Amino acid sequence: MVDLKDAHELTVTEATKRGVAGLVADAEQGDALVVTRHHRPVAAVVGIARLTEIEEAAADLRDLALVLARSVADKGRRTSLDEVLAAFGHTRESLAEIEDDE
Asked: Which of 77-89 are b and which e, b meaning 16 or more Cβ less than 10 Å from the residue's Cβ?
């Protein structure tokens, strides 16, 4: 896996000289490029495999954050379907009696 901190840096001017085809060729080979303007990173060129890894890692982190938040907030109370239905004035039987609009 390529670490973007170790990516090859090049300026916008250098990237322009290399052209899109050159940048894409490097990305296809697994090289990560960071494009800088005034010594500040402004863009990254990575292959689709690396982009997929980044997106999957971000999704995993979102899931982990949700699990952690739920575990901290969990008071152990569970609500059954029947309790929810009762809160809205229904039972399973009353819902079964409702005719479909089809």
From this structure: eeeeeeeeeeeee
Cβ distance 50 to 32 under 8 Å?
yes
Domain architecture of the chain: domains with CATH = 1-46 (3.40.1620), 49-97 (no CATH)
Q: Which of 53, 36, 43 is nearest to 2 (CA)?
A: 53
Q: What distance in Å separates the CA atoms of residue 56 and residue 58, rounded to the nearest whole number?
A: 5
Note the pLDDT tens digit of each residue in 44-102.
999 999 999 999 999 999 999 999 999 998 888 899 999 999 999 999 999 998 888 76
Helix (H) or strand (E) holding 37: strand 33-37
Question: 35: how many CB neighbours lie within 10 A of its CB?
Answer: 19
Stated pTM of the model: 0.59
Interatomic CA distance for residues 97 and 91, integer angstroms: 10
Give the pLDDT of residue 89. 95
